[in-house]
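ugh ok fine here u go
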Amino acid sequence: MKMIYQVEDTPAFKQNLVFAFQQLLAIIAATLLVPTLVNLGTAGATEVTMSQPAALLGAGAGTLVYLFITQRKSPVFLGSSFAFISPLIGACSFGYLGIILGAVFAGGVYVIISLVVHFAGTNWVDRLMPPVIIGPTVALIGLSLCGSAINNLNNTSSGDYNLISILCGMIAFVATVLASVKGGKTAKLIPFIVGILTGYVVASVFTAIGYAAGIDYLKIVNFQPLIDNFSPLTLKSFLSVPEFVFVGAIRHGADVLGGSAGVLQVFLLFAPVALVVFAEHIADHENLSSVIGRNLIKNPGLDRTVMGDGLGSIVGALFGGCPNTTYGESIGCVAITRNASVSTIFLTSILCILFSFLTPFVAFIGTIPVCVIGGICIALYGFIAVSGLKMLQKVDLDDNRNLFVVSTILVLGIGGLVLDFKAVQITSIATALIMGIVVNLLLHKGEKKPEAK
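structure:
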C-alpha cells in the first residue's frame, strides 16, 4: 500500500494536529473502556478505582516510551490492553501497589523476551510464523472484533436494541467510506473525523426530536456526562488532575498486598498473560509491516518493539493502571488514511496527556453514542481483516497442507476456543495461533522449501 505520508515524514503542524486528533478518536473508546470494565468487575469490592482520564494519560505516556525505544520507526499507538482485564480485576484486591506490580511483571516478561530476541535473532519468527500463519491470524484479529462493532451498532447507551441507533451508526460508516474514497484530498486523510461528526450530528437531531416529542426511542445521544461536568460550574469543570495509580499506591501503602504470598499471586495473574499477548504483538507488527511496506520485525527489530511495549506498559500502568498493547484501531487508521507518519502518533500521545486534564473533553467523549463508534469500527476492523487476507496471496492454497493450517486458525479463532487454566486464560486468538504453528510444523516437518509462492 502506497503511503501518502511515510514513517519519517512530518505533515504541517495544523494538518498533523487534525491527523493526531483522528488517531485519538480511533483509539479512545477502547482505551477508556478497559478501566470501566475493571471497575464493573470489582463492583466496589476493593479500595481501588480505575480512572478513565488516568488511563488515557497512561496510554499516551506509554506510547511515547515505545516510540523512543523503537527509534521512531514504528507508527502505532499503544492503548489499554483488554487481555489484562481479568488480571487487573484480580490485582485490585491487592491494592494499587498490586496493580503496579502486575504491570512490572508483565513488562518484565517482555523485557526478557526482548533480550532473548536480541541475542537469538529473528529468523525463528520467519520459520515459526510464515505468511500461512500470520495472514489468517491478522485476519482473525479483525474478524474477532466484528462482534464488538456490531454490538455497538445495535445498542444505544441504555443497552436496548434500537433501529435508529443502527441507522446513525450506518450513516457514520457510509460517511467514513465516502470521505475515504470519494472525498477531497483533506477528507481522504480524516475520514474518521468526518464519519464520527456526521453520525454525531444525525444522532443529535434524532435526540432533539425525541425530547421535543417525548419519544425515548429517538434519544440516541446521552448528554448527561456534559451536564454533570458543568453542574455546578467550577474550575474542576474545566481542569482536573486524574487519579493516578502511583498516587493511590503511595497513599494506601502495601497493607493489602499481603507480603510475598500476595506478590506471587500477582505474578501468576500477569506473567502468563504477557506470554500470550506476545504472540498478538508479533501479528500486529507483521500486519503494520504489510501496511506501510517495511519489515518492522527487522528494523527497528522485534527486540526493540517488544522492549518498547513492555516498558511502555509499565510506565502506562504507573499512571493509569492498565498495561498497554499495540492497537488494531491505530493500524487500521494508518491503513485507511495512508498516513504512517510517526510524528502523528507522537502528537496523538501528547494530546492524550493534555486532554486527560481537560474534563470537558473526557465528558464530551462520553456523549458520543456507541452506535456511531460501532459504525466507524466496521471500516477499521474490516481493514485489519482484509490486510491479513492480502498476506495469503503469497501462499499456495492449492496445497492441502496450507489449507489445513489456515482452516485451523480461522475455525478455532472465529469459533472462540479459549483455554482456561484458572491461573491463566489463553485467548482464542492466541490458541488459534499456537495450534496453527503446531499444525504447520507437523505438516511441513523436514521440509526446507517455504510454502509461499
